[in-house]
Amino acid sequence: MAPIKLAGIVLIVAGVLALVYGGFSYTKQTHDVKVGPIEFAVKEKQTVAVPVWAGVGAIAVGAALLVFGGRR
């Protein structure tokens, strides 16, 4: 499979996932206070929203790569 077509498939899958889930979240661990041997760690949950236009755009670009990527 050509790398262009593989990139097109990856973009389509990523676009569909962006539309279905609307974003993703991750946990960020920070070390705020360190007093001698004692260390206080804080875990923060961060959420990243993926805009709808980005998901639709990824699908469109992926489809264009699949259709026009193999032509020379």
Please describe what this structure looks like.
By secondary structure, this protein is of the alpha+beta class. The protein has one domain. It has two helices and two strands. Helix 1 (3-21) runs antiparallel to helix 2. It is elongated and about 65 Å long. The protein starts with a helix and ends with a helix.
Indicate the mean pLDDT.
Answer: 88
Number of H/I helices: 2
Structural class by secondary-structure content: alpha+beta
Tell me what portion of residues adopts beta-strand conformation: 25-35%
Q: Give the % helix.
A: 40-55%
Shape: elongated
User: Can you tell me the number of structural domains?
Assistant: 1
Largest sheet: 2 strands, antiparallel
Radius of gyration: 20 Å
Topology:
Blueprint: H1 3-21, E1 23-35, E2 38-49, H2 52-68
Antiparallel strand pairs: 1-2
Question: What would you say about this model in short?
Answer:
By secondary structure, this protein is an alpha+beta fold. It contains two helices and two strands. It has one domain (3-68).
Key descriptive features of the protein:
alpha+beta, 72 residues
